[in-house]
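Training component of the fellowship. As part of building independent skills, the fellow (R.M.) carried out the full modelling exercise for a liganded target. The chosen ligand was magnesium ion. The inputs are recorded below so that the supervisory panel can assess the work.
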Amino acid sequence: MSDRIVAQESRLGYRLLAPAFLVIVLLILYPIMFNLYLSFFDVQLDGNKTWVGVSNYLKLLSDQTFYHSLGTTLIYLAGTVVGTTVLGLAVALLLNEEFPLRNLVRGLVLLPYFAPVISVVFGWQFIFDPVNGIYNHVMVEELGLMSERQNVIGEPDSAIWVVIVFDVWKHFPIAFLLILAKLQSIPKDQYEAAAIDGYSAWGRFIHVTLPELRFVLGTVILLRLIWNLNRFEDVYLLAPNVETLPIYIYYRAFTGVIDQGFAAAVAVVQLVFLAGLIWLYVRKVLKW
Amino acid sequence: MAEVRLKQLVKRYDKQEIIKGIDLHVQDGEFVVLVGPSGCGKSTTLRMIAGLEDINAGTIEIAGRAVNDLQPHLRNIAMVFQNYALYPHKTVKDNILFGLRKSKVSRAVMDDRLKQVATMLQLEELLNRKPADLSGGQRQRVAMGRALVRDADVFLFDEPLSNLDAKLRHHMRTEIARIHQNLKTTFIYVTHDQVEAMTLGDRVVVMWDGEIEQMGTPMDIYLNPVNTFVATFIGSPSMNLIPATYRESNGMIVMADLELPMELLPGVHTANLKDKQALYVGIRPDFFEDVHYASELEAYWKLPERTIELIEPLGFDKEVSFSIGDQFVKARLDLRSDLQAGNALGLAVNPERILVFDRDNGMRVN
Ligand SMILES: Nc1ncnc2c1ncn2[C@@H]1O[C@H](COP(=O)(O)OP(=O)(O)OP(=O)(O)O)[C@@H](O)[C@H]1O
Ligand SMILES: [Mg+2]
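Fellow's submitted model of the complex:
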């Protein structure tokens, strides 16, 4: 292409991007900047602000509840990301094999992803209900694995596992979908060559499938990290006592002893993590 | 080291038989070449031996053991794929060594073999590249290398030289022959190329439409084809098939204005012919000789003079075309015969090299 055509195309590109860019500035960049600004103030309920410098950040660094929330977030991220990736991979491998009604099964597997959060959350809460829930019934009466009924969702320590399992169940289909699409595009002859080279099914998985899935697995892991670092509604609706960062921020900003400056500082910390992940995604995954 | 035995091997795709019950016994250490037109089932046969396709009927034995249900990775076979099938994520070096890594040979042996193969295949400069950055011919050589480093019982080659230029192909042909001489392992080799088949094979197997038409030594196939398919498929330029009729009354085979006395042909018995039987007379272009330069012509069949219609120089040889009746016939003469189109041509043929086929079913008449 000549330079002129390149110039024309990039001008067109900018023009096409402009509306989206404007929306991003208004809806995302402005709130981010404003949040950053707030984090240096002590914000009163009536809207009055006093400049406090970095004292919100200092307070945060010495606040046990912040570290607790950070720990909860890490467990939540690790559990959900590993869970969805492994489950998505396993189901994708399984449904990549030929069997009758395969397409129907593939469709059914996607259902949790499309179900509205609020309706399935009620279902899950009912499952773990201490009095009427099937979980306690099976564990205590049927199998006798637990000696007495427990309020699984009521206790933050056990509730986080419910939240993780719920998220894995709800979001593994997207991992499944991305991985399956890639699996289908791996040329058969590579498996044949590896078989001839003496590699069993397991060896072929390690040496042919996994390298081919590198990009898509990286994408799944990082996107899931980014999404779940921000995830609010699933956690809050299912078990409001599981305080991941977004929920912690919400509590500090809008409930109890309201401290929006402090909440803004926590949000900035979250933003830094997020930016790190996005940087990793752009630099590493998109490069492969 | 292993012999390979195919017994009544059948392959079907959706009821259509692609391999129609072939029998083939490849001796331990033998070099067998499968040739045949595109789509006749050569690759399918190789892939069944390797275990990449399942078998609908019959058995495959490797080293005396039926392997029908043995998975490919347990068969200890090396194979060069027709479409290379290289690992795109691995460098050339890792592609080549991948099989050896599995068989856990020592580092030193690996380095040694890699070096040997890389030198032989002229891959030294390319060892750190990925397949995507190679030309077709280079990829093909990597595929060759990947097979040749292995310590396999049987080596399978599916047209391994098809994408190389003439010079490299010649070089590789010699190399393959040498490797086989050194390894003395069982080689089964598929090719379209006449010269490869003739020069490499201890035995050549000619396939057509899922069946074996003939097998034998290259010379046997060349000199004694069992039917017109083999006769014309093997040899380049292809054998001349001149329509003819047998005339019992005077013991002559008549081709338009030419007559070939049966008494000249030691290999054909009149008892096997009927009066007025429609025949083909088969003569390879190479077996025509210019009467000016041939010695010992007594026993030869001398053709009445022909007129040259076309000359195609090929360097040392030239192809000279003339007609017998309506049939265009080619003769290959060497450069001593200094001829022009329009000249008269005196030719003779050793009668032992004249073959007779039935025109209806294409089978050889002895
Ligand atoms: N998966 C398949 N499904 C249906 N038919 C097939 C399949 N694979 C091969 N065939 C058919 O089997 C026949 C033999 O194919 P094969 O690849 O063995 O031929 P080939 O002799 O190796 O030809 P070439 O010289 O072109 O490589 C062909 O007619 C082909 O169309
Ligand atoms: Mg083929």
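The panel noted the following from the submitted structure. Chain B has eight helices and 24 strands. Chain B has two domains: 4-233, 240-358.
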